[in-house]
Design goal:
Blueprint (H helix, E strand, L loop, with lengths): L15 H5 L2 H6 L72 H26 L13 H10 L5 E3 L5 H7 L3 H9 L22 E2 L8 H18 L8 E6 L6 H13 L3 E7 L2 E2 L2 E2 L10 H6 L3 E6 L3 H15 L7 E6 L18 H10 L2 H12 L4 H24 L18 H16 L14 H8 L2
Parallel strand pairs: 1-2, 1-3, 3-4, 4-8, 7-8
Antiparallel strand pairs: 5-6
Helix pairs in contact: 3-4, 3-5, 3-12, 3-13, 4-5, 4-10, 6-13, 7-8
Organism: Westerdykella ornata
Keywords: Metal-binding, Mitochondrion, Oxidoreductase, Potassium, Thiamine pyrophosphate, Transit peptide
EC number: 1.2.4.4
Length: 466
């Protein structure tokens, strides 16, 4: 028989104590100690007298000899947090609303501005002056309220119904209109379809059309922020905030993002706008569980369900979520904001093909974030019908003025289609530019070059750059 060496006799055998204490290796490499309390697994098997499960995959589960399946129908639904009722009355007057009158007026003006802009842009699209638009009717309180409760340095990933987030953070009416018309002043240089805003200055990533792609992006950004928060102790810590609809929560990206955020314990706030419909699909056809909030607990994430029509509840929930998200280096939080999508999914949708008009009108009349806050302001004696009329008239004029200005502007230079891809124009790009210039020169009647800033000369100037 061949001579074999015993593993015990090997001079390179690993000491058993190092297998039981993996952090030993961390200390020898002089890397920061990683807290492992919440994720530490037992390394011993269950004993005959053990009362709890010791399997690594299910800690602290008691043994039982009774077989009982968990039936969701036997459990109470997750409650929905609110501060004031639909009549604008504060429920717990001792606690109040955590918002001063002047700040509440600013929030109200922004929500009304968003509502007016939505109506005017919807009409403009129907007139053929815009190619596409998406409204936020019924969900203004979620976007405006959340943005007002965050720090300006916090990084935000929006879906496509968060226009109020941009508005609250300082995105101007001119910037909105420039993007909608994709003119030369558009921050995205006309490369994106309407309502896909973005602002590096405001720490808001550009909206992306594919559903749910922003959720794993937010989880990754939150992990980067976690490292920055640890390394830059002289700067205030930041969180990553992600918005998505309940329909997007059916995508695989949602589950992957929440799982990685939970396992890596990153400072993130995931905000689901549950407005009842994913385009034409009602929630009854999307899931059978208790909304989206029920999924948070499954991933080990602190979770809360909030009345999205109550802007004070939204603000208080987000403030507390941000505090929790920054605890002990970071942890994810999931908030499900309950609302009703009053408008169509987009200008490409006719929602009355899949829901009754009376249902929409009932929600408009019964409850929405704007009228609820207005009732509270009127109850405080700081708002009345005259102020309402003056505000709406003034905002309408401002929106129309920005619209008219942006509509008359020229499109971005044709050369901008090639810029910003590489640090310098490549030889392959130069061939493409020359080919495009040649086509435009040979067929001048086929292309409206004059509508672009600089015309065809922008291509020549780009080729001349060193």
């Amino acid at each position: 028989m061949p001579n074999t060496m015993s593993l015990r006799a090997s001079t390179r055998r690993i000491h058993c104590s190092k297998l039981l204490h993996p952090t030993t290796y961390l200390h020898t490499r002089q890397t920061p100690k990683v807290p492992v309390g919440w994720r530490q697994c037992r390394a011993v098997a269950s004993t005959a007298s053990a009362e709890r499960v010791l399997f690594p995959g299910a800690l602290n589960s008691k043994f039982t000899n009774e077989m009982a399946f968990i039936r969701p129908s036997t459990h109470k639904a997750i409650p929905t947090y609110r501060v004031m009722d639909q009549y604008g009355q504060v429920i717990n007057k001792e606690v109040g609303v955590d918002t001063e009158d002047e700040e509440a007026l600013t929030l109200y003006r922004n929500m009304v501005c968003l509502s007016i802009m939505d109506l005017l842009m919807f009409e403009a699209q129907r007139q053929g002056r815009l190619s596409f638009y998406m409204m936020s009717a019924g969900e203004e309180g979620i976007a405006v309220g959340t943005a007002s409760a965050l720090d300006p340095s916090d990084v935000i990933f929006c879906q496509y119904r968060e226009t109020g987030v941009f508005l609250q953070r300082g995105f101007t009416l001119d910037q909105f209109m420039n993007q909608l018309f994709a003119n030369k002043e558009d921050l995205g240089k006309g490369r994106n379809m309407p309502v896909h805003y973005g602002s590096k200055e405001l720490n808001i990533h550009t909206v992306s059309s594919p559903l749910a792609t922003q959720i794993p992006h937010a989880a990754g950004a939150a992990y980067a922020l976690k490292l920055q928060n640890q390394q830059q102790s002289d700067k205030p810590p930041r969180v990553a905030v992600c918005f998505f609809g309940e329909g997007a929560a059916s995508e695989g990206d949602f589950h992957a993002a929440l799982n990685i955020a939970a396992t890596r314990q990153v400072p993130s706030i995931f905000i689901c706008r549950n407005n009842g419909y994913a385009i034409s699909t009602p929630t009854s056809d999307q899931y059978r569980g208790d909304g989206i909030a029920a999924r948070g607990a499954g991933y080990g994430i602190d979770t809360l369900r909030v009345d999205g029509n109550d802007i004070f509840a939204v603000r208080r929930a987000v403030k507390e979520a941000r505090r929790i998200a920054l605890e002990n280096g970071g942890k994810p939080v999931l908030i499900e904001m309950m609302a009703y999508r009053v408008g169509h999914h987009s200008t490409s949708d006719d929602s009355f093909a899949y829901r009754q008009k009376v249902e929409v009108e009932d929600w408009k009349r019964r409850d929405n974030p704007i009228t609820r806050l207005r009732k509270w302001l009127e109850g405080r004696g700081v708002w009345d019908e005259d102020k309402e009329r003056e505000l709406r008239s003034s905002l309408r004029k401002k929106v129309l003025a920005a619209f008219d200005k942006a509509e008359k502007m020229k499109k971005p230079p044709i050369a901008s289609a090639f810029e910003g891809v590489y640090e310098e124009i490549t030889e392959e790009q130069k061939q493409h530019i020359e080919e495009l210039r040649d086509i435009l020169q040979r067929y001048p009647k086929e292309y409206d070059i004059d509508q672009h800033e600089g015309g065809i000369e922008s291509l020549s100037q780009l080729l001349e750059k060193k």
